[in-house]
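Narrative summary of target 7.
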Amino acid sequence: MKLKTKLLGTVAAISSIFCSLFIAPTLVRANDDEYLNEVGMQLMGAMVTAGFGGYSQTHDPYIDTLSHDSSDYITINLSAGKSYGIVGVCDRDCQDLDIALYDDRGNLIASDLEDDDIPAIGVTPYRNGTYRVRIDMANCDSKLCYYGLGVFGQ
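Modeled conformation, tokenized:
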């Protein structure tokens, strides 16, 4: 019964993410629906793959584009004592995406700089605050690659 409850919770979380991808505003610089949908679908499953299956979405997903060797920052508010999973994904033209989390003083809190295209970090902030996620497009075979970022908590 416990497994069934966990499975239903995971399905509910994935459904919530899927719905918010079409309802919540996302920032997009180009209109390539195929890549946008690809990244959105990857983001739905990435939280489970990254080990955050018991988490639920806490922030609207963010989808945008970056060129090879470029970076972007996303500002998020996090609550003290709550566990968060931050997961990135990118499209089929991307081989390596990296993410790093910084506090409001610029201190590095956590990062995933591995050579992969689904970076994930887990963090439990010790204080409420505004944090910045740096996204680095380390390897993109196209002029622009789509990426997505999801923030989940429990």
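Residues 2-23 form the longest helix (22 residues).
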